[in-house]
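Q: Here's a chain of 106 amino acids. Please give me its 3D structure as C-alpha cells.
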Amino acid sequence: MSVVQKGIILTLEGEIDKNGNPTKAKVQSVSAEGTSTLPITIPWYLRGEMGKLEKGTEIAFVVFDDTTGIIVSRIDGNWDGTIENNITIKGNLTVRKDLELGGSIL
C-alpha cells in the first residue's frame, strides 16, 4: 500500500526534459531519516522555474510497491506564476487576466 509522505529533496537528477530540467529526484522521508528513495519522478509542473525545487525543499511524495514514485507537491504550496519557456498549445487559448509574453511568437 502506498502512502503520501513528507520528505526533503536530496538531489535533482535523471533525464533532462526539453526545457533542460531534471526529471527525477532522490528524496529523504522525514519519518525515516538516513534513508532515501531511488530517483522518483518530478512531474512537469514542478520542474525548473515552475516548481523551484532544490536540495532541501520540503515536498509531499509517494513511493509505490515497485519502488517507483512521484513528487506530488511542495509542502509550502508556493508558485510564483512562472511557466516554462517551451510550451505548445494545441487548440484554443483563453486568457482571463493579463498575459505577458516574451521572445518571439509564431
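Q: Can you summarize the key feature?
A: The radius of gyration is 16 Å.
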